[in-house]
């Protein structure tokens, strides 16, 4: 799969894993992301290694991420989506989602899924809807797993 590097002024979205700043990603996820506070760095590294990632950069500084868990054929899970607080309001999250949703190898999937506690309106702009029949979904969820 060919990596992409898309530029908009001083900002770049890239799928090149070499550019990802593990320290910056871990700092955000472990201290500011409500969904995974205290996540260990080795868990972040393993997650990145086993996912398809879109990094967002200002020059060389990592300022955002979207991580996709997928088989590139039938399903994709969108997670760990963020833009650093100081860069919000510039349209970067919308640009990131446009880039993810239009990526050629992610077209024609039967299902996309995600969990969000606060960004419903962003995702609705890209056709996401509430689960039509939540009685079909099940989960095992340990919200304190990183505190043990």
TrEMBL record:
<dbReference type="InterPro" id="IPR016181">
    <property type="entry name" value="Acyl_CoA_acyltransferase"/>
</dbReference>
<protein>
    <submittedName>
        <fullName>N-acetyltransferase</fullName>
    </submittedName>
</protein>
<dbReference type="InterPro" id="IPR053144">
    <property type="entry name" value="Acetyltransferase_Butenolide"/>
</dbReference>
<dbReference type="GO" id="GO:0016747">
    <property type="term" value="F:acyltransferase activity, transferring groups other than amino-acyl groups"/>
</dbReference>
<dbReference type="InterPro" id="IPR000182">
    <property type="entry name" value="GNAT_dom"/>
</dbReference>
<keyword id="KW-0808">Transferase</keyword>
<feature type="domain" description="N-acetyltransferase">
    <location>
        <begin position="13"/>
        <end position="148"/>
    </location>
</feature>
<dbReference type="Pfam" id="PF00583">
    <property type="entry name" value="Acetyltransf_1"/>
</dbReference>
């Amino acid at each position: 799969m060919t990596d992409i590097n898309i530029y908009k002024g001083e900002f770049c979205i890239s799928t090149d894993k070499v550019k990802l700043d593990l320290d910056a990603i871990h700092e955000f996820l472990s201290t500011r992301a409500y969904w995974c506070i205290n996540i260990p760095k080795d868990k972040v590294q393993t997650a990145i290694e086993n996912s398809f990632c879109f990094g967002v950069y200002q020059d060389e500084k990592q300022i955002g991420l979207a991580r996709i868990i997928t088989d590139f054929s039938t399903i994709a899970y969108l997670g760990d989506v963020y833009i650093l607080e100081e860069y919000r309001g510039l349209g970067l999250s919308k640009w990131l989602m446009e880039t993810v949703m239009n990526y050629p190898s992610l077209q024609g999937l039967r299902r996309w899924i995600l969990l969000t506690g606060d960004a419903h309106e962003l995702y609705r702009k890209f056709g996401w809807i509430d689960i039509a029949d939540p009685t079909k979904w099940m989960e095992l969820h340990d919200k304190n797993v990183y505190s043990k």
